[in-house]
Structures are given as structure tokens and as C-alpha cells.
Amino acid sequence: MLRSIRSFSSTSKMLKTLKIGLIPGDGIGKEVIPAGKQILENLPSSYNLDFEFVNLDAGFELFKKTGTALPDKTVEVLKNECDGALFGAVSSPSSKVEGYSSPIVALRKKMGLYANVRPVKSVEGIGRPVDMVIVRENTEDLYVKEEKTYKKEDGTKVAEAIKRISETATTKIAKMAYEIALQRQSIRENTKTKQLHLKPSVTVTHKSNVLSQSDGLFRETCKKVYDVNINDYQNIEYKEQIVDSMVYRMFREPEIFDVVVAPNLYGDILSDGAAALVGSLGLVPSANVGDNFAIGEPCHGSAPDIEGKGISNPIATIRSTALMLEFMGYPEAAAKIYDAVDANLSENKIKTPDLGGNSSTQEVIEDIIKRF
To answer: Sorted alphabetically, which keywords does the UniProt record give (predicted)?
Structure first.
């Protein structure tokens, strides 16, 4: 697992108190965010970390009650009081709801969280070997949500959406991807465990054969960042992949991919699809990362079909909690969490229904904590 490439603070022998914002959001977010809180509360004292928590609001359910999906107070507290945060899930209505827009998308923009980092790694001995990180640009592409619908002269409707790719945002996400690749290689060189990748690589994913200007700019900028910084990146193998063939190869030969960087929409689709390679969206973490803040966010949705049943898989949130700690500059504590999760998965006994088990959310949490 990658270590922190944006060290917001340094590990110290003195007790450090960190304030973490908890934003459950909708659906099972209310059931899995407490898992992250319990994990942090039970970290061994040897890591010299103490935690304070502040509960914050956001989500579609909040919007239906108050008319606001992301209160200004939530953003203000995160910016002025918190060291990091955990976000649970958000319900997304399939049809337009006047005045509503996704609070997590807005939060990424307001907090300057320009990268969504999604590691997908299999447990040794279980399933196909997978060890990739999908680095998704987080602020633009079709997610700028600039759409319009109009009628043609014959009365038929036409809907249009803006796809925005900028050199500035692409430069930042490309640098993030290359830095992650170097950091992952550094870790591989200093561990005795068997590694899937012998050399770092970054695969730039695009559709510039059709979208020659927007995706063309993304592709050209990623390559330019690589070429300009070749002295730093010369040990990284630069690759490119058209997005449709990327999907095909990701499922056929996932072991060939190390770090994948993509525009917002492709990164969203690829990261959710990659979760199928390791068994469940309930296993896959992510972090929304900027230069000064990180929010851990499980990749699953609000899952209304299992809400309130106490069977949601907490592992994606627990891994997202560890990933948040990595980007806050506490990789040793994060590694402890990863090891405990891997031990739970390797034993393959205490598991939620999405993995073929019959354990509750809380039983999985307790099994992981006992492995610290």
C-alpha cells in the first residue's frame, strides 16, 4: 500500500491529538463511519495518536429536510478545525431534483481536493493478483455539471453537457500519479514480501482518438509533465491506454497495472469496476486529497437495500481511514490497520454477506480491532 506522498504533519514520539470530521451522509454511511471512529479509538498507544471527533452533516437526506445538501458550517469546520475527515456515502437521485447537487462533489471543490486516490489490492492467496492505484482527477471533466436541455425546431429535445479538461488540473493530477508510483516503488524495495510489480509504471487513460481536444489535452499534458521531469521520473515506465481497451485489459490482465491516472469520469468508472476484481465494493477505499487536507471515503454507495440491517461491509471505510492517515503523514499507524484487515480477509471467517458470510458489521469491526 502506498505511503503518504503529501506529509501534512510528521510522526512524533510525543502524543499528537488529531481532530477528525465525521460525515456519515446517507444510507449505510451512518453504519460504516462509526467503524472508522472505532478503529481510530482502538489504535495501539505506541503510535502516540489521540483523536477528537466532530459530527458534521451533508447528504441528500439532509437536502430533503433542509433544502441544503452541504451546509456552509460543515465546510467551515473542516477548514478551520479538522486535521482530516471521513465521508460515508451519498444518495444520488436518478432524475433531476431542482436545487440539488452532490455534496461530495461540492466538498471536493470547496476543500481543493483535486485527487481521488483509489487503491485496489487483492489479499495474497485469494483471487487474482491485483495491486493497482487509480488516481482520478477530482474537479472537472463532465463533473463540472454544466448541462442544458433545449428544443430543436421540430420540437424534439436535445441535452448537452460540458466536458472541461484544463492544463492546470491535469498537471496537478499527473504529478500526483507519478509521485505515487515512485513512493510505491520505494516501499517495494524496502519490504521482504513478494511484490507483483518489479518496476513502477503509470498508465494514462484517455479517449483522445475521439475527443481530440479535451482528452487530447489530458494525454498531452500528462506526457509533458513526464518529459519535463524526466530526471525524477526516468525509472517510471510511461504507458497510455484508450479507455475502452483499458476496461478490457483491466479485467483480462489486471496484474499489469501499477498506477492508472484518468480524467474524472473514466476514473470513476474504472475504480468501481476494479472493485469487482477483489470481490466487493465493500472492500475498496479511497481518499480525496489536496495539498493540505485528506478525506477518506469508501467507494460503495448508500446501499438503501441493506440500510438498517447491520450487515454493511465496514472494510472499505476502515481501509479509507488508514488511507486518510497515510496522507496525513502517519504511515505506520495506517500499516497497522491494513495488516489487521488483511488478516481478517485471509482467515475468511468473519465476513459480511457481500463476501458470502453471515457476520454483522460490528462483528467484522471487532475482529479487525482484536488483530491490532
So the answer is: Amino-acid biosynthesis, Lysine biosynthesis, Magnesium, Metal-binding, NAD, Oxidoreductase, Phosphoprotein
Residue 258: DSSP 8-state: S
User: What CATH number should be reported for the domain whose range is 1-113+290-372?
Assistant: 3.40.718.10
The reply to whether 118-282 shares the fold of 1-113+290-372 is yes
- Cell (9 digits) for 87: 465521508
Q: What is the mean pLDDT of residues 127-139?
A: 90
Strands 84-89 and 16-25: parallel
Rounded-to-integer distance, Cα 266 and Cα 7, Å = 28
214 contacts 163 by C-beta, under 8 angstroms: yes
DSSP per-residue codes, 85-130: EEEEE----SS--TT---HHHHHHHHTT--EEEEEEEPPTTSSS--
Measured CA to CA in angstroms, residue 196 lies from 83, 93, 104, 355 at distances of: 33, 40, 33, 24
The pLDDT of residue 249 is above 70? yes
Global pTM reads 0.85
Q: Which CATH number fits domain 118-282: 3.30.390.50, 3.40.50.2300, 3.40.50.300, 3.40.718.10?
A: 3.40.718.10
